[in-house]
Specification:
The chain is an alpha+beta fold. The chain has one domain: Gcn5-related N-acetyltransferase (GNAT) (Aminopeptidase, 3-Layer(aba) Sandwich), CATH 3.40.630.30. Helix content is about 40%, strand content about 25%. It contains eight helices and nine strands. Helix 1 runs antiparallel to helix 2 and helix 4 packs across helix 8. The chain is globular.
């Protein structure tokens, strides 16, 4: 895939490319979405066929929305998609917001830095589009490993929603932003502003194993997140100038470093 529809780079066995589904021929876009369903099934319920996976069914139900509005970063290993992030940039609460619509990495590539490599590309692209502007980033998360990964990248607890553990938590302003985001994107659904849990956001399904390596995240998922209710955790981060300034060199160098680790998973 070449030209304005995709941008690619590679390191070792993994290549990352950016595509916009709405600009692809419809048949090609549907083929990509079909392959993503399999990635979702593998990432959430290893060994389960896409037809039996509640996560894959939930993703399939949002195919048309993703086709119309999403940009994608795809990670390929030997031509096969092994991970992706679907996202869009929207204005919210007076700031541009990176809305992560779906984030999935196959188990063999989790904890390898691949997700952070794709996220770094999204953030850097956003910064180049609107230089000097602070951003929010928001995602609905059902996988404890994913939430632990996001949390590990945040410098200050006040810049991260929801509160995890007994230490400092998000600022009142960020809690208010999270409440507004939940109301706009999940109207009518129960939202707990303490835990970040939204009930009924996805199709009911089995609970995932709680073993993220982050004790506070594991407690949240064990005690408050129930797949049979369709629970998700709303995560909102404040990508303010202080944090971006501290991370800009890290983000700029994250792509080659993260890709260099792909295939060498970190221990939990």
């Amino acid at each position: 895939m070449t030209g304005p529809l995709a941008r690619s780079s590679s390191h070792g066995r993994v290549a990352i490319e950016r595509i916009r589904l709405a600009r692809l021929p419809r048949a090609e876009a549907r083929s990509v979405l079909d392959e993503l369903v399999g990635v979702v099934a593998a990432s959430m319920t290893p060994g389960t066929s896409p037809a039996m996976s509640w996560a894959a069914q939930d993703f399939s139900a949002r195919r048309d929305q993703l086709w119309a509005t999403a940009d994608l970063y795809l990670a390929r290993n030997g031509g096969r998609i092994v991970g992706f992030i679907a996202y869009r940039i929207e204005d919210f609460a007076g700031r541009p917001t990176i809305h992560m619509l779906a984030v999935c990495i196959e188990p063999d590539h989790q904890r390898s830095g691949l997700g952070f490599a794709m996220t770094a590309r999204i953030v850097l692209r956003a910064l180049l589009t609107r230089p000097g502007s602070p951003y929010y980033m928001a995602a609905h998360i059902v996988n404890p490993v994913a939430l632990a990964g996001w949390r590990s990248r945040i410098l200050e607890p006040e810049d991260f929603f929801p509160r995890l553990g007994d230490g400092p938590g998000p600022s009142d302003a960020l809690v208010a932003v999270a409440c507004e985001f939940a109301e706009r994107n999940s109207p009518g659904l129960p939202f707990d502003k303490t835990t970040g849990v939204i009930t009924g956001k996805h199709l009911p399904g089995d609970r995932l194993p709680v073993r993220s390596g982050d004790a506070a995240v594991d407690v949240l998922f064990r005690d408050h997140v129930f797949g049979e209710r369709g629970d998700t955790v709303l995560m909102v981060t404040d990508l303010n100038l202080r944090m971006l300034g501290a991370h800009v060199r890290v983000l700029a160098g994250a792509v080659p470093r993260s890709l260099g680790r792909v295939g060498r998973r970190r221990r939990p």
